[in-house]
Amino acid sequence: MDKTNAIISVKELVKKYDDFTAVQGISFEVYENEIFGLLGPNGAGKTTTLEIIETLREKTSGEIIVDGYSVDKDASKIKRIIGVQLQAAGYYPNLNLIELMELFAGLYGVDIKPMEMLEKVNLQDKAKAKYKALSGGQKQRFSIATTLINSPKIIFLDEPTTGLDPQARRNLWDLIIDIRNNGTTVVITTHYMDEAEQLCDRVAFVERGEIIALDTPDNLIDNLINSGFERQKEVKKANLEDVFINLTGKEWREDN
Amino acid sequence: MSKPYNNTKATLALAKASFRSIMRSPSAVVFTLAFPLIFILVFGFLGGGGVKVDLAIAPGSDLQNPIINAIEQINVIHIVKDKDADEIKAELEKGHIAAVINVKKNTSGTPAYLANVQYTSASIDKGSILKSVLANLMYTLNSKDIKPTVAQLNESTVQGRIYRTIDFILPGQLGFSLLSTGVFGTAFVFFSLRQTLVIKRFFATPVSRASIVFGEGIARIGFALCGAVFIILIGHFFFHFTLIHGVITVLNMLLLAIIGLVVFMGFGFIVSGIAKSESTIPPISNIITLPQFLLSGTFFSIDAFPSWLQPISRALPLTYLNDAMRKVAFEGAGLWDVKHQILIMAIWGIGVYIVAVKVFKWE
Fold it and tell me: Which of B64, B91, B118, B175 is in the most buried spot, having the most CB atoms within 10 Å?
């Protein structure tokens, strides 16, 4: 990453609910065209932070600029240049994928060819299926397709691979890397460190509403090793997931 | 990106999506179409008969005489033959038969015949009808060849429109269909869109809240109007539902339907806001719809209710929708003629939406 143009800048962000503080003054920047990971345990404030940047939630204090727009003043302009995949979001009932795509095209006010959008995430065969009838991996791919409708500058993916099998997960990684290679900035949250290590250019560790580390995965690992850390068990050249993929095949599956 | 955002396009996209979704939802179709149609079918086939009084002919009674012949010509009376004395007695005691008649030739001269009629205390109201019909019949038979000495009665009937059961039932069913679509449909849709985070996902797009509400509203009104047209056409072509000015009457009814629906959807917004879970929606909705179903003149004219109940009936919005619908359909009234009813619905609408704005939840 030689380009370090900040497309999102978060300064001293605080979010207080009635009786507890979910986010206590965090600051970070996301650079243009990188995959930025927000990592941390459940309840650390990852989703809250994302939803404030996405203009879905009010902040208590702090300043957020997304591509030059402030979340306080230009929420609607920000919405037009971002794509959002929510954790566990539903879609309008009784509609098939093509019809849902048409709906979102209307909501974003853009003209798209629904079939082309579905092809991007390899769901063209499911065009007439209902969202409910999709497998976990297909649902996530469809969610990602809806985030791409308005050709956004930034997309936000909140735990997109939770609950997926190894093939579906790898397949989604390829999709996310493709999206980034097409010039979109990606902000992602995840619980899987192998995923963050593979996908993310930089990661921030969030714990109890604060950022406790922010760097490239390589630097963070090197720092730990330099401090004298050693794994209990010697690392082999492959892990059990590699065995799984090797045995069951990496090819695209109908039910992924 | 420089193109300004188009709210109309978003609203229409939502309306289209919502309309498709409603059309594929079995419960919406059942509530809007099937229920009202079933009631219309039942009442449509029941109706038109008017009052019937069962009169048994006693075994051994003379059958070939002017009295029985004349009785057979009377529509109101349904003659029951071929029952023995015991059966007739049992039916009389239960009130299934209003009376039994026994006609005998008078062996001792004039009058030519003697007719004995025995009524039952189990069917007094029908018995009274029968009494006056028979009295009238006897008078006509006895005075056939006699000039009246005091006064001659000349009777004639004004040719009016036939007011059939369907003319009463159909507007009521239509009103109820609008009420249930408005309340249940709106409550369920907004509650489930909120629960399943569909609305949250919408909020991540530039769509405005007004577009979401209007889009849903347009779809529901469109669906309900399709249902209304369907119900009116079935009623008109199969059961002779009266539409005085034809298409104009239908259009007036549809405008009334929109007004009613907007008010009822307000109730739906309130229910979706106060319901704590999906399973509490039906009971809360029923609290709103059932009293109106029963008390707003859907099945019976509210004039038939006891006087203490009538003020309650006259406070409900569906009463005024039903009333206005009947006036428009049967009496050919224009919308201006039912302004009183529309005004009361409008007052309800304002009240309902004031509450709806307070209790409605987006997330």
Answer: B175
